[in-house]
User: Which sequence fits this backbone?
């Protein structure tokens, strides 16, 4: 029977590439989205992947959404916590609202996504938890105190989950994408974006599919002994 994968924020950007790749690999895929109904409908029309709407920042909504996914597709074997937002501002201008919005979505959202599927994975003695972190959680980033804090937090989450899940056949790993050609990166003012690209030794932005292929590997049986790891995919922009 096909394994079931949930990708949060799975209808756009890196998440859409992950959903599509996992479907191509033979998984039954569910893609969650927070608000963009048009993008979700287009995504389903193009890929045949079912979408489910909930806000990952809300624990009860996540629990209900995950229950709906499991009712439709079966127990979740692979969870990809990908949903994330930016609210960039230099620290002296960052508001408490910008701080909390990003923490609630990007960090608490990972808890809200993994916590409801964790007991089932423990019972079935199999699970793959893959968290999409960021190069900016590794190196920090001007105007991203909030975002970098959440992405660094992701690495602590997977290292802890890895230790708790290992005996139960569950792995938890993170991927730190560098700058990838998505709406989020294209929203950076052009002059600043050009400077960023100039600082990437590969000389280009990454493609969402390059992250999706890393996810497919971590989800596979081949990656069973990789646990608590961080894969950096950033065109040689930063080394840990
Ligand atoms: N490094 C150094 N200085 C920077 C900078 C950077 N990366 N980005 C902006 N600045 C500077 C500007 O040049 C400007 O300097 P001057 O005052 O000397 O002209 C100053 O900071 C901007 O100050 P402002 O008070 O005018 O800033 P603002 O309130 O208008 O905010 C901004 C501007 C939102 C910070 C905008 O510069 C921006 O979007 N910067 C990019 C931030 C960024 O790289 N975010 C990453 C998004 S991609 C992502 O998050 C995906 C991922 O995981 C990789």
Assistant:
């Amino acid at each position: 029977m096909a394994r079931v994968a949930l990708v949060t924020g799975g209808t756009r950007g890196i998440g859409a590439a992950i959903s599509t790749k996992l479907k191509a690999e033979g998984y039954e895929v569910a893609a969650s989205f927070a608000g963009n109904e048009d993008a979700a409908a287009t995504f389903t029309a193009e890929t045949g992947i079912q979408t489910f709407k909930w806000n990952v920042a809300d624990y009860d909504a996540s629990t209900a959404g995950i229950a709906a996914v499991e009712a439709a597709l079966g127990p979740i074997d692979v969870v990809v916590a990908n949903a994330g937002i930016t609210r960039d501002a230099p620290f002296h201008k960052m508001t408490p609202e910008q701080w909390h919005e990003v923490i609630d979505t990007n960090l608490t959202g990972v808890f809200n996504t993994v916590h409801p599927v964790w007991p089932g994975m423990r019972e079935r003695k199999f699970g793959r938890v893959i968290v999409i972190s960021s190069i900016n959680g590794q190196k920090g980033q001007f105007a991203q105190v909030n975002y970098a804090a959440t992405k660094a937090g992701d690495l602590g989450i997977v290292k802890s989950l890895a230790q708790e899940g290992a005996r139960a056949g569950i792995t938890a790993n993170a991927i730190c994408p560098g700058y990838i050609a998505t709406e989020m990166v294209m929203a950076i003012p052009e002059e600043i974006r050009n400077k960023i690209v100039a600082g990437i030794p590969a000389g280009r932005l990454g493609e969402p599919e390059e992250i999706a292929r890393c996810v497919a590997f971590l989800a596979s049986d081949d990656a069973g002994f990789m646990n608590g790891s961080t894969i950096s995919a950033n065109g040689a922009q930063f080394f840990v």
About this structure: The chain has a mean pLDDT of 97. Residues 100 and 146 are 8 Å apart (CA to CA). Residues 86, 88-90, 93, 134-136, 141-144, 147, 179, 184-185, 188-189, 192 surround acetoacetyl-coenzyme A (CB under 6 Å). The two ends are 39 Å apart (CA to CA).
